Structure formats: structure tokens, C-alpha cells
């Protein structure tokens, strides 16, 4: 079928809305009519080259929610009309990682940037000229239709707003799990959240719900610091340097047992700064993405050893998407997890570049594309 999508044809150029062709679902695949797509910083990394896809053109988008329109051969977990969230990391349930309880490291993840469908290693999306299109994490939610492997979809309750559900494909479980799973925040611990955009605000809520004593939100944007306090932060600062003395005074210089780094782009030169506010035997969780070509890190190795600190990477917040996405949405329905107020503004697909400008300028926590008939 013919539809349209937000395409990148080269680095450091704006998103362009183009006509694309979406193929039919093959074995173990489903076709979805998209209703909402989250605008995550990771898709901006496609534009800068921080996340390198296997080729161009690229169809962006890896957060989204919609309705199943068609199912392929062998699909048993979904029916036409089901509401689903797209999980940016698939969960096959069969590989060693899935069986070991780390579904966020599913073996299908090795194929996410290649563009070829995991079912048969062919392309489901083509340009109007017939050239293959590389969808972000085999999804491409910046299009009103998509065909995905069933391992990339999670069935959800039909009474959940699509714009809320969309954020649970990446930002909410990534942030919340960075605190509760990868960070293992315990009641009474002091926690710092570095960067309070979409992922950081979810991490902040995770720390609060886990029972953190003090939550220090650190972000250079004044408006985001104001929002962080509304979401439960006890203190807010523009930088680690500004926060250092207050964190020391409040914690009697024990510093933070957990430091969760959710900045838009991680630079290796900042790692030791984040470790400086991490307590003895504490953990600094790196959730934000750095450039894949960057291997330089500033870190005092002696203090890492002598103070027995931990530096922990985290992908998808350590989440099991098939389990955690429905659970987080249940918390939303019970009023225990505030997702709606994280959605600062909704955009049309044609406004995608405006939305990313707002993100980069710190004018939103999370922007969401809401699809209409005009997009289809």
C-alpha cells in the first residue's frame, strides 16, 4: 500500500515527508494502522550519525501505538482490531537472553539497524522509486502504517489513549526501569537524575515510586527543572557543579547511592563528573546514548576501585517489554504513573521538524505525533 513517512536521505538534513510503499505482512508479521508516535532523542541521533543505520534512506520513529489491521501466517497472539504498543527492542521469548530473563537483550536486537525484516531478511518498505528504506529499529513509527514482526508488538487495553501508550514503546520503560531495574533504587536512598526530558522524567517517577529519600534533578533548562519538581523531585539544579554542595550537605557528604544519566547525548568527558556525586558502593547508570564512534572516557580508575563504585549501562531500562509495558500502563490507569503530563505538545506528521526543534531547545518533555486521516 502507498502511504507517507518522515525520511532522512543524508546526515544533518531535516526530516522530509515522502511517499513510501508498505508491503504486506509475511509469516509472523502484522500490519498496524498507527495512531501516535513519540518523538525520542534517539531518532535525532539518526540525523547526526550518532546511531548509524546500515544505509539510506531512513524512515524514523521507534515509539508508537496503533491498531492491528492485518495478520500474517502463523500469528497467534494478535487479532485484527487489537490495540498495540510497538516495542523498540523485540522480544522473541526463545533466545538465550529472553530465556535468561533479559528480554531487553533479545538476539533480534542485533538486526535492529540493518533495515531487513527478521522474518526473511527482505525489506518491507520502499520509496516511490522502488528503493529499499531502512526503518529505525525495524519499526519506522514516523509513518501512519507499518508492518512489523509480532515480537515487536505488545497488546494493550483498548481504553488507553494512544498518545499515552506510544511513550511506553521506549521512553517510559527506559526511564522507569533505569531507576527501578538497572539502578535498583531502594527505599530511603538518595538519587540524582541527570537530564529530565522524557526518559529522565520517567526515571524520576521511578525513583519516587521506589521510595527514594531525596531526588536531585539536574538539567540546564529552567522550565524542565520546574517540571521536575512537579513530578516529585525534591531539589533541582542547572548542573552537577551547582548541585555538588547541596547534595553533600543533604546527604552528609555520603552523596547519591544512585545516579541515573538520561541526557540526550552522553559525552565520555562527563562520566567522572557524574561519578563524583555517586556514593561509595553506589551505582551510576548510563542510559543516555553516546556516539557509537566515541570510545574516550574520563574516569578516575583509582577512585572507582577504592570506593567500590559501579558504572552500569542500561538499554530499555532492563525492561521485559511483554511484561513491563502492560504493567506500566496499569500503573497509569490507577493514577500511580503520570504519563499524560509528560506529553507537552502533540504534532502532525508535517510538523516533525518543528517538534524536534522544540525538543532540542528544551521546550517539551515529550512531543507526540498524532496521526489523522490527512496523513494516510
Binned, the helix content reads: 25-40%
Strand content: 25-35%
N-end to C-end Cα span: 10 Å
Give the uncertain stretches in residue-range form.
none
Pairing-aware structural class of the strands and helices?
alpha/beta
Biggest sheet, open or closed, and with what strands and sense? 7 strands, mixed
Gyration radius over CA:
20 Å
Q: Kindly state the mean pLDDT as a whole number?
A: 96
Quaternary structure type:
single chain
Number-wise, the strands total 18
Count helical runs.
11
Gross morphology:
globular
SSE string: EEEHEEEHEEEEHHEHEHEHEHEHEHEHE
Protein name: alcohol dehydrogenase
Catalytic activity: a secondary alcohol + NAD(+) = a ketone + NADH + H(+); a primary alcohol + NAD(+) = an aldehyde + NADH + H(+)
Enzyme class: oxidoreductase
Domain Alcohol dehydrogenase-like N-terminal: 27-157
Amino acid at each position: 500500500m502507498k502511504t507517507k513517512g518522515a525520511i532522512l536521505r543524508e546526515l544533518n538534513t531535516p526530516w522530509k515527508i515522502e511517499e513510501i510503499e508498505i508491503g504486506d505482512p509475511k509469516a509472523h508479521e502484522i500490519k498496524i494502522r498507527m495512531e501516535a508516535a513519540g518523538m525520542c532523542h534517539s531518532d535525532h541521533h539518526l540525523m547526526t550519525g550518532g546511531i548509524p543505520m546500515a544505509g539510506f534512506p531512513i524512515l524514523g520513529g521507534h515509539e508508537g501505538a496503533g491498531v492491528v489491521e492485518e495478520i500474517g501466517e502463523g500469528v497467534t497472539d494478535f487479532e485484527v482490531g487489537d490495540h498495540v504498543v510497538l516495542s523498540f527492542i523485540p522480544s522473541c521469548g526463545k533466545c538465550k537472553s529472553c530465556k535468561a530473563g533479559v528480554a531487553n537483550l533479545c538476539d533480534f536486537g542485533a538486526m535492529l539497524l540493518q533495515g531487513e525484516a527478521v522474518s526473511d531478511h527482505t525489506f518491507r518498505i520502499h520509496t516511490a522509486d522502488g528503493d529499499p528504506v531502512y526503518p529505525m529499529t525495524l519499526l519506522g513509527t514516523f509513518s501512519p502504517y507499518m508492518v512489523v514482526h509480532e515480537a515487536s508488538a505488545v497488546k494493550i487495553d483498548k481504553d488507553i489513549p494512544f498518545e499515552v501508550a506510544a511513550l511506553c514503546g521506549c521512553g517510559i520503560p527506559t526511564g522507569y526501569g533505569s531507576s527501578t531495574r538497572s539502578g535498583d533504587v531502594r527505599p530511603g536512598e538518595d538519587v540524582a537524575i541527570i537530564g529530565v526530558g522524557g526518559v529522565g522524567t520517567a526515571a524520576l517517577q521511578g525513583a519516587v515510586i521506589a521510595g527514594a529519600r531525596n531526588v536531585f534533578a539536574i538539567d540546564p533548562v529552567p522550565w524542565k527543572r520546574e517540571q521536575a519538581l512537579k513530578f516529585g523531585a525534591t531539589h533541582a539544579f542547572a548542573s552537577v557543579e551547582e548541585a555538588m554542595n547541596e547534595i553533600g550537605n543533604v546527604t552528609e557528604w555520603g552523596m547519591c547511592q544512585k545516579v541515573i544519566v538520561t541526557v540526550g547525548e552522553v559525552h565520555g568527558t562527563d562520566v567522572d563528573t557524574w561519578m563524583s556525586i555517586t556514593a561509595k558502593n553506589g551505582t551510576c547508570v548510563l542510559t543516555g546514548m553516546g556516539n557509537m564512534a566515541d570510545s574516550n572516557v574520563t574516569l578516575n580508575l583509582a577512585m572507582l576501585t577504592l570506593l567500590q563504585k559501579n558504572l552500569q549501562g542500561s538499554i530499555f531500562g532492563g525492561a521485559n517489554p511483554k511484561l513491563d509495558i502492560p504493567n506500566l500502563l496499569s500503573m497509569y490507569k490507577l493514577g500511580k504513573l503520570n504519563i499524560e503530563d509528560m506529553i507537552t505538545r502533540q504534532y502532525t506528521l508535517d510538523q516533525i521538524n518543528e517538534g524536534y526543534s522544540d525538543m532540542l531547545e528544551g521546550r517539551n518533555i515529550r512531543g507526540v505525533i498524532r496521526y489523522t486521516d490527512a496523513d494516510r
